[in-house]
């Protein structure tokens, strides 16, 4: 039996699953009842935190799949300590997020915001803009999304260094990979800093006052990872004080971003509502991955995207 945590928008392409198993669709309030007797749980509403308070009702659960790459909303202590297998949707969003990051780099370098403002004002405003070829980018997070970002930025002419758990000189996607313990040194060399690390105990709040202070005053910060990677008040202070030159933010500690938050009104900030990976067709792609994994689960085959619950992400092969 399968329980599905969703709101009004049920996942598509579930006919094959519904033909093979009993499926209970539930919102947050109904999840405890849906979990009783369930062997599997699909967390389609991946922003929900309803799994933790309902987890005690999971008397038969063997597998949980979440329709996102990040797993921090379902990796609470009881889940981490349990025997429940956890899988995520790694691989779906890599290319789309890489394109979003390249778009942000170009938007900053080519000053599109000023161009659009001048166009609205019907003002002919000639000026010079920046080249991105030869500039340096640091991508913090060397998983599949970070690697897709590195490949696309490198194709556009940037020199891309990665920051991960372990330093490596030879790497197929990065000029080099530096250890996270050397983060601040790496930040000082970057024109663009891209945060795409998973949110774990080790990465929470890693972009704080000290990290922003280590960056160049001309650097731009791009966060497509998790809002919790950033100490938001420190970021606001760094932007207001021109410690860094700008930020493109797709994720936030609190979502939606409150309407009175100072980030909305800062002239050097680009804000998008947690949508960097949401391309046309992303929902069917998420459903297809789950349906494929469900078939493997029924057949007793190894599943795709098994998360190491101690690390908090799918380990590199």
UniProtKB/TrEMBL annotation:
Pfam family for this entry, one: 2-Hacid_dh_C
PANTHER family, A to Z: 2-HACID_DH_C DOMAIN-CONTAINING PROTEIN, D-ISOMER SPECIFIC 2-HYDROXYACID DEHYDROGENASE NAD-BINDING DOMAIN-CONTAINING PROTEIN
UniProt keyword terms in alphabetical order: NAD, Oxidoreductase
UniProt domain D-isomer specific 2-hydroxyacid dehydrogenase NAD-binding: residue ranges: 103-276
InterPro entries in alphabetical order: D-isomer_DH_CS (IPR029753), D-isomer_DH_NAD-bd (IPR006140), NAD(P)-bd_dom_sf (IPR036291)
Signal peptide (from-to): none
Protein's UniProt name: D-2-hydroxyacid dehydrogenase
């Amino acid at each position: 039996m399968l329980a599905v945590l969703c709101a009004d928008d049920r996942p598509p392409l579930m006919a094959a699953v519904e033909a093979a198993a009993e499926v209970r669709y539930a919102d947050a309030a109904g999840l405890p009842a849906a979990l009783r007797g369930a062997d599997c749980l699909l967390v389609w509403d991946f922003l929900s935190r309803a799994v933790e308070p309902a987890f005690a009702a999971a008397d038969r659960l063997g597998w949980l799949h979440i329709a996102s790459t990040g797993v921090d909303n379902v990796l609470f202590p009881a889940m981490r300590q349990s025997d429940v297998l956890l899988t995520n949707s790694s691989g779906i969003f890599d290319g789309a997020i890489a394109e979003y990051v390249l778009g942000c780099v170009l938007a900053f370098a080519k000053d599109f915001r000023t161009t659009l403002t001048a166009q609205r004002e019907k003002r002919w405003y000639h000026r010079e803009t920046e080249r991105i070829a030869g500039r340096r980018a640091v991508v913090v997070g060397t998983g599949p999304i970070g690697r897709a970002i590195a490949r696309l930025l490198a194709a556009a002419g940037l020199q891309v260094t990665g920051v991960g758990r372990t330093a490596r000189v030879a790497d197929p996607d990065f000029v080099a990979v530096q250890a996270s313990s050397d983060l601040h040194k790496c930040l000082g060399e970057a024109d663009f800093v891209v945060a795409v690390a998973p949110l774990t105990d080790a990465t929470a709040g890693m972009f704080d006052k000290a990290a922003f202070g280590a960056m160049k005053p001309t650097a731009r910060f791009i966060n497509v990872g998790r809002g919790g990677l950033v100490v938001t008040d420190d970021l606001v202070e760094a932007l207001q004080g021109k410690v860094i030159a700008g930020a493109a933010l797709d994720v936030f500690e609190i979502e939606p971003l409150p309407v009175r938050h100072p980030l909305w009104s800062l002239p050097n900030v680009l804000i998008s509502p947690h949508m960097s990976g949401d391309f046309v067709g992303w929902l069917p792609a998420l459903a297809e991955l789950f349906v494929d994994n469900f078939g493997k689960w029924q057949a007793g085959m190894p599943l795709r995207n098994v998360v190491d619950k101690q690390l908090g992400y799918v380990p590199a092969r």
